[in-house]
């Protein structure tokens, strides 16, 4: 916010700028350690999952903003599991292939898990004849 002010003693006019300062945000890792919330790292992971997919960058930015808002609402600290869950839910709505790519890396899905997830995403598909 920009404000014009005037000194009460010399009447000199000047401008001040105010900005909202975000609280420090942290991610609680699975091993119990804490690390600062890093938007760039989160965005990079989501971009890698949606590589060569028709995913608008605005959709990724919106998802990162929603996750950051969740961290703020949770008191400045969010678990890594919750961040992963929010990423998966967001990507599922944006692009199912990006969702599967992220789920494979994040959830460390094996072949059977991947097949089950594909069936869940597309219940009308015929089962594989392997």
Structure description:
It is a single chain. By secondary structure, this protein is α+β, with helices and mostly antiparallel strands. The protein has one domain. The chain has helices at 39-49, 57-73, 80-94, 96-106, 111-121; strands at residues 2-6, 13-17, 26-28, 34-36, 77-79. Strands 4-3-5 form a 3-stranded mixed beta sheet. It has a two-stranded antiparallel sheet with strand order 1-2. It is elongated and about 80 Å long. The termini are far apart. The mean pLDDT is 88.
Rg over alpha carbons: 22 Å
Total tally of structural domains: 1
So what's the overall shape? elongated
- Report the average pLDDT across residues: 88
Q: Quick one: biggest sheet?
A: 3 strands, mixed
Which residues form runs of ≥5 with pLDDT under 50?
none
Order of helices and strands: EEEEHHEHHH
- Secondary-structure class: alpha+beta
Q: Please count the helical segments.
A: 5
Q: Kindly report the oligomeric state of this protein.
A: single chain
Summarize the model shown.
The chain is of the alpha+beta class and 130 residues long. The protein is built from 5 helices and 5 strands, in the order ββββααβααα. It has one domain.
């Amino acid at each position: 916010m920009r404000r014009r002010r005037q000194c009460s003693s010399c009447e000199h006019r000047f401008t001040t700028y105010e900005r909202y300062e975000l609280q420090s945000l942290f991610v609680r890792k699975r091993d119990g350690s804490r690390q600062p919330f890093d938007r760039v790292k989160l965005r990079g992971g989501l971009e890698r999952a949606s590589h060569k997919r028709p995913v608008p960058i605005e959709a990724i930015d919106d998802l990162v903003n929603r996750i950051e808002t969740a961290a703020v609402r949770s008191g400045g600290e969010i678990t890594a599991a919750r961040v992963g869950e929010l990423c998966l839910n967001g990507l599922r709505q944006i692009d199912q292939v990006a969702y599967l790519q992220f789920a494979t890396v994040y959830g460390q899905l094996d072949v059977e898990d991947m097949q089950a997830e594909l069936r869940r995403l597309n219940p009308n598909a015929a089962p594989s004849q392997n």
